[in-house]
Amino acid sequence: MLPRFPAVTRCLSLAALLAAGPAAALEFPLPPPGEDVIGQVQVIKAKYEDTFADIGTANDLGYLEMIAANPGVDPWLPGAGTEIILPTRFILPPGPREGIVINLAEYRMYYYPKGQNVVHTYPLGIGREGWGSPIANTKVTAKTPNPTWTPPASIRKEHAEDGDILPTVVPAGPDNPLGPFKFTLGVPGYLIHGSNKKFGIGMRTSHGCFRMFNNNVLELAKMAPVGVPVRIINEPYKFGLSAGKVYLEAHTPLDDKGDPSVVDKHTAVINALLKREDLANNLRMNWDMVRDVVAAEDGMPVEIAVPNGAGGPAPMVSSVPYDMQ
């Protein structure tokens, strides 16, 4: 059943892999303090007419998330009966669990409603090359239903060069690129908003703003108030604890200068681990598995270590091998 899945995927528990059925919405109970992993990976069977865009929309997953989790499967014609992995298991982003947290590297938002012991997570479209989304600590400064759109001069110029003359103001409605709702951020010129296109969520397609599925942005609008903090990070490698085991989740790094080298990726992994002071000096690490996870970049948490003193497989070492330094 599993030969086409990435090798690291086979390290997930069988129960996690076979938890079938699509999620209606990605809302999870917050794990207790010291725990970081939420959700379960699911597997469904594609219908003849399914595409990754359709499956992603139905399951709150972005296009590139689906691609990464299902290498070798045609995203436009998976084929009836083809098993499709839904990567609906996540390591929570590092840092405070409050407000809105956007991790650019995974094209995903996490929202922690104040006073509730849950987390909501949504796929995002982010800034394309040359129009990168910012890394910032900011907040929501305004909420606007049915927004109009006034294209900035830079965007109007870009479209005009392609023969597409934009109006000065685009009225609210189904043709508005902002969709049915927008959140204005404290970083000038940047928004969280819906879209008039289904395709592009979970990809680098915007001029720097954060695009959401329309049903997601409307759901968020009911929960997130003006003033809610927004923390925007870029963390392709996330470490997390769950049930006494240590997991690594790896995404393709965002780099407008080209693909980072293997050495650069390994350095980034070590730096991400060192930020976790609760883990960095207290692990028996399976570095072979770490290399596999980093190479796969499939966006799913994989067990790579146990804390010193815990039970687990023997071939783990605590020192960093030369080729990971």
TrEMBL record:
Active site: H193 (proton donor/acceptor), C209 (nucleophile)
GO cellular component, one term: extracellular region
Pfam families in alphabetical order: YkuD
Cited CDD domains: YkuD_like
Entry keyword annotation includes Glycosyltransferase: yes
InterPro entries (alphabetical): LD-transpeptidase, LD_TPept_cat_dom, Transpep_catalytic_dom
GO molecular function: glycosyltransferase activity; peptidoglycan L,D-transpeptidase activity
One biological process term in Gene Ontology: peptidoglycan-protein cross-linking
Annotated signal peptide: 1-25
Keyword Cell wall biogenesis/degradation: yes
Domain L,D-TPase catalytic: 98-233
Keywords carried by this UniProt record: Cell shape, Cell wall biogenesis/degradation, Glycosyltransferase, Hydrolase, Peptidoglycan synthesis, Signal, Transferase
Pathway, per record: Cell wall biogenesis; peptidoglycan biosynthesis
Listed EC numbers: 2.-.-.-
Family to which this protein belongs: Belongs to the YkuD family.
Listed name of the protein: Putative L,D-transpeptidase
Species lineage: Bacteria, Pseudomonadati, Pseudomonadota, Gammaproteobacteria, Pseudomonadales
